[in-house]
Amino acid sequence: MASGVVEFMAAETEADKSAVVERMIANPQVMTGIITDLGPYIDGEASMVDCQKGLEFLLLVLQRVDPEQISRHDSLVRVFVNIDVLLVSVLVEYLAKRISEAGDVQIYRAGLQEVAKSLITLSQMTKKFLKTNATLISEAVFKLPEKMTLRDFPIATRLSLLELLQCLLDLYLPALKRSMGPKFVDGVVSMASLEKSPSCLAILFKVFEKLGLEWDPSPSECEEMFGSFFRYFPITPSSATNLPANDLKFLLQNCFKSNNNYAEFAFDAILEKLDSDVSANVKNDVFDALGGCIETYSIPVVSRYSLKIWDSLKWEIWNGENEDFVNRALVTVGAIAKSLGKQRVDWNDPSNECSKFIGHVAKECNEIFHDDSKKRFILRSGRILSKLVMSSPYGSTLVTRICLPGLITLSQALTTLSEKTRFIELMNLILEAHFECGKLEYMVLQQDLPPEDVEYRSRCLAAMDDSFGNFREGLVEIYFGSMSDTSSDVPLRKLTIKGLTFLARMITFSNQEPLLSEFERGTVLSKLNETALDFNQATELREVSVTCLGSISVEDPQAFIQFTLSNFMSMFPDALDIKAGGESGLSRAIWLLDSLIDIACTSTCKAELSKPIPNVKTHWKFRLFDAMQAELIEKLVESISKHSKQQPYQMVVLAGIYRALETFDKALLYDEGLGNKWESPDPTFHPYAWIVTNLFRRCIGLFQHHEGPLKPSWYVGINDVVDGEILDDTFVSLVGAVATYVLRSHTTSDKNNFLLKANDEHPEEPSRIWTLFNFGAHTRSGLAASQQHLGGGPPRKCSSIILSTALVAGLRKDDRERMKIQVHETAKSMILNAIDTEIKCSREARASMLQMMQLLINKFGADRTKFEDGKYLHDIMIELVKTVPSPRVYQTLAYFSAAALAAYEPCTTELITLMMERISDPKYGRKIAQSFSILLAPSPVMNEANFCTLRPLRFGRLYSLTVDYLVNVWRSNGDREIKESCLIALGSVLRYMPAKNLQDNATRIFSVVLAGTDVADNSTKEACMNIMIVLMPGNPSLVEEHLDSVINRMTDRTHNTYDCPSDATVEGRCKALEVLAILPSIVRTELLIKRRNRVMNELDVALDDCSREVRARADKCKMIWFNLVTIEA
Fold it and tell me: Which residue among 284, 379, 668, 1122 has the highest number of C-beta atoms inside a 10 angstrom radius?
């Protein structure tokens, strides 16, 4: 045994110590005589260092005794060591003695942290630990503050001692209370007397909370403990601690809330802090503490202090200038009312706690309403009443009975505009609070409550409805009278509209019947529609009317469909006179669409139609959205079918359909996030599919080839409009965007994916990717091959690829087999179509061919399947580059490489190497260099939203493949064209690189990027200047090394005169000025002073630039350079 102790004392590393302990505890007799063996090291003349190490050994051994004390990641093997009650007691007595005599015996001060941890370990052996030993340990710990200052000990030691007390209190509280009584409380208070360490305070606060909750302290003990912990309030821990400040605040507030007996000290002390001149942060802490106490203390206790709190807060509310503090005070008043409203009371007994408080406050506020000298307090008093009303149905009823009769009478005596405006705003506050209170209480009643709670709450809700209903006529008279007022005051009319909306939405919550009659609600709805659609009205009025219509419509979809939707749609013109200038008509149509979207799509429907649609498959949450979209699609189809040259108007309507879809889909997702799940009556039915199919049916037609090798086969193409006019490809692209959004929506599942479902149900028919849901096309077996062969057109057929690409874009990676297309064959067809110079198609159609190829490569692995001849797709691409080089071939190569790079395909290196080799091509080198920008540029189709693979490592891989090679060619090649092409390619690659990749390689690329600002290519110039803006702040030494070159090149860009125009665009000149403006912040002033005059002269030239944006930038830059100060030696 002794030899083991010697070995441990000689061990230096943690691993060596653990090995010694492991060997020793393998001996069942290890605990016998352990103190004797350790004696020379922890007693007598031992050094403080040896003493601490010896006690560490004891701690490690004790932690091995009980397997529960060993970490699951401990490298030691768990071993059960014999230890009995007697040995535990001996160890406890010895260790407690070391603590109690630490103030007298020098050696006992060493290893106190290890002693405390050892005692924690022993106390957790509950089956072997005598409860009386808890008292022994506590008394020993409490002797420390008597004999010496605890702050003399390190924080870690104090923390361990406090954790020991916390452990004893958690395990042996009843025994400690019986044996020590007030002495324990006194001891804890003495431990806290000088403590300031946040980590120690955290434990102390937990101990105080435990005492408050379970000790059942006497009034004197409460006063003693409250005084001990309240002196830390409000707590402001130093930033040096790892413990978050909010955690300490929370723990301290738990002390306040732990016992009702603290109330007589807490409320007075907190309110005193509130009344004193304190900082904003402190005042917020005071409000937090006050709110926590109100929420936690019992109702009788809160009631006892409620009016005192009110007296302290009311002037903060009425006279307060800081709106945040006013709101906090209002919340506190509401918390009191809510706390008192939790108990069941006899509503006819005015002496109950809730009635006393709410009645008192409501009467004070009511007096203000009728006192002309206190008009400035009216709206603040209204906010107070709204908090009381919101507290409970009883609170709402009390306020209604006390205040509404007088307010209704008062409304008849108002004469001035300001009085009427203030009064309506006050009534709106009460109406809104009543509505929210009833709605909340009704939601509570829908939960699973005990029968007695249901009965009481239902009775309260009915009583609240009856009380409020008694004033229905008066409220109608107030608001309808205000509505008919001929005043044109916008603020008053806005408030009246909001109040009318609350009345129209108001129901008797106990039976869910409307408060207003059907005629009255119709009148309100008619007024809101009239205001919203009157373009002569103020914009504010129309906007608030739209908002209010939205609030009513989601609760009453039938009214929306019958009135609001029809009124709005009637305002849409059938056609616009574009020649006469249809801008105003377009602006009006855009406003109508935006308003309809705000009404019908920003929130899901909250109720079913009063006359449900038979056999409907969508959930009732979609009622407003479905009705609006149906009308918009009908309007769009009618415009396309009957009116020519209406593309701007048709684009506006189609954009409205897309934005409505996007807005509603987000609202639906948000609603689901709140827990409001919905299920479709038919899980195979997609709620948005009908929108896509209706749009496709109008856009797509079935046609026959009249010439060429495919004659007389059939194909799907874009339909004619009126007078032989074909839908523009911009319009078709937006239709495709609608289809893509629907397919990737969170509402799309494997079961209801309308595209894949149609493919599954009709395996013998061509894929819907090619037929585009055209009914006649489904029976044409050769259609799939025809749709992929776009050589020779016609243009309408080429444009249909836009929609096919849109459908592929919305599919997920796992949908490959269900698409019913051969991805590698289709990708090959797209490559051949894209490079075909004979195809007569739009830029949108050709871009869609390239995007389809990218999607098939990146998302569906088209390059991983061999063709019959054993080649892969990239082999075909490389062969085309080598045999039929052309701008289109190189463009297609760049798109192919971008898709492969993003997915980290094996062919990436070969493709990009081919691109780099071709930069030296005298005919196409410059075009190839420019195409490098495609490799990392954000794509509208190949992105994560469309389930594509965009690996983060692609940036580093492209850098390693290209940059060094291009830099070397640029440095070594003497041909000016090739050097420029290298710089263009470098700028194209680096412009989309993350800042970290650029910073990590600043030394290598800075000079090259600087040279790129001189290239005769605007895109490269701007890209290189952007890269410089990223690099410069982190590399001042590099900038200083090239300082003259930087200044010369930037001023060459900014110098733009009639005789010597700049070679840079407006954006380029602005970027150059931004680079110049950065220099003074990173370059030594003495270097800049030498060059200031030259730069200032050039900035004077820039101040005369023809572009206002350039002049503004030059002005800012000149001020920065003007303020340079010479640094004296």
Answer: 668
Quickly tell me which residue has 């390239």 as its tokens: 850
716 backbone dihedrals φ, ψ, rounded to 5°: -100, 130
Q: Tell me how far apart the alpha carbons of residues 1048 and 1043 are, in angstroms, rounded to a whole number.
A: 9
Each residue's pLDDT tens digit, 779-810:
787 888 889 998 877 999 999 999 999 999 99
Q: Which two tokens stand for residue 122?
A: 């022993």
Give the per-residue pLDDT at 79. Answer: 44
Query: Considering just the CA atoms, what is the radius of gyration of the chain in Å?
Result: 40
- 776 C-beta neighbours (distance < 10 Å), count: 12
Residues in a beta bridge with 514: 507
Question: What length does the chain have?
Answer: 1129
pLDDT > 70 fraction of the chain, expressed in percent and rounded: 93
994-1122 architecture in CATH? Alpha Horseshoe (1.25)
- Of 1012, 940, 1003, 1016, the C-alpha closest to 983 is 1012
pTM, rounded to two decimals: 0.84
* Bridge partners (DSSP) listed for residue 702: 716
CA 952 – CA 955 distance, rounded (Å): 6
Query: What is the DSSP track for 51-118?
Result: HHHHHHHHHHHHHTTSGGGS-TT-SSPP------HHHHHHHHHHHHHHHHTTTT-GGGGTTHHHHHHH
Q: So where are the chain's domains?
A: 1-180, 552-681, 685-821, 864-988, 994-1122
The C-alpha atoms of residue 881 and residue 913 are separated, in whole angstroms, by 12
| Residue 624 CB neighbours (<10 A) | 27
Q: Which two tokens mark 1?
A: 């045994």
- In contact, 267 and 305? CB cutoff 8 Å: yes
- Write out pLDDT tens, residues 285-315: 899 999 999 999 999 999 999 999 999 999 9
Element (DSSP H or E) covering residue 1106? none
Q: Mind listing the pLDDT tens digit for each residue in 713-725?
A: 899 999 988 777 8
Query: How far from 962 is each of 910, 928, 950, CA to CA, in Å?
Result: 12, 13, 19
